[in-house]
Automatic annotation (TrEMBL):
Family: Belongs to the thioredoxin family. DsbE subfamily.
Domain Thioredoxin: 69-203
Tree of life domain: Bacteria
NCBIfam families reported in the protein's UniProt record: dsbE (TIGR00385)
One Gene Ontology CC term in the entry: outer membrane-bounded periplasmic space
Family annotation (PROSITE patterns): THIOREDOXIN_1, THIOREDOXIN_2
Protein name, UniProt field: Thiol:disulfide interchange protein
Organism encoding this protein: Puniceispirillum marinum (strain IMCC1322)
Pfam families: Redoxin (PF08534)
UniProt EC number: 5.3.4.1
Compartment(s) of residence: Cell envelope
Length: 207
């Protein structure tokens, strides 16, 4: 009969069992290792997952809060075809405040912000810029989620978006009557964004 545990390891000598300090120490180390190593691995995986999640959340917050280089500067010259193919100059809206919204039919957050844009359209003219989208898909999107736009321009290759510093869709800008960029938001316009960020700007514009 061979008895080994962390409290005593034994070796056979004649007819008697004698404790073996070397065997005892080794067995204790092995027993503890079989518990500690999986625990350490689990903690390491949990730590990496936690840091990854925090990085994603911080990155999202940073994108939303990152100031645009256009703030308090004239909006970029923007001449694009509309949905009918006619070239339209965003500058024609000067003389009144306007909200510019980059969107796409394939963009899930764009669908989420549709109700907020519908509310905003009752207070300020909204110019939508369809970003890297197909005309038929844009039409389906508008039919399903509503059309809050005074005009829709088509940035098919996304080149105009670069001049606006657009990272992705949706992104929203508010211009004053002189065409100066007062506000930029990356991400969907939620009710919170509407109430906390956009509402004060609209009030300052007398809207």
């Amino acid at each position: 009969m061979d008895r080994r545990d962390c409290h005593g390891a034994w070796w056979w000598a004649g007819y008697a069992w004698w404790p073996s300090p070397r065997n005892q120490k080794w067995q204790c180390i092995m027993n503890r290792a079989t518990f500690i190593i999986p625990l350490f691995g689990f903690l390491l995986v949990a730590l990496i997952a936690g840091w990854t999640l925090l990085g994603m959340l911080d990155g999202q917050r940073s994108d939303n809060q990152l100031p645009s280089a256009l703030l308090n500067k004239p909006a970029p010259t923007t001449i694009l075809p509309d949905m009918a193919g006619n070239k339209t100059d965003l500058g024609q809206f000067k003389g009144q405040p306007v909200l510019v919204n980059y969107f796409a039919s394939w963009c899930a957050p764009c669908r989420a912000e549709a109700p907020a844009l519908g509310l905003l359209s009752k207070r300020i003219d909204i110019v939508g810029i369809a970003y890297k989208d197909r005309l038929e898909d844009t039409n389906k999107f508008l039919a399903e989620y509503g059309n809050p736009f005074r005009a829709i321009l088509v940035d098919k290759d996304g080149m105009t978006a670069i001049s606006w510093g657009v990272y992705g869709v949706p992104e929203t800008f508010i211009l004053d009557a002189n065409g100066t960029v007062l506000f930029r938001h990356a991400g969907p316009v939620t009710r919170t964004v509407l109430e906390q960020d956009i509402e004060p700007i609209l009030e300052s514009l007398g809207l």
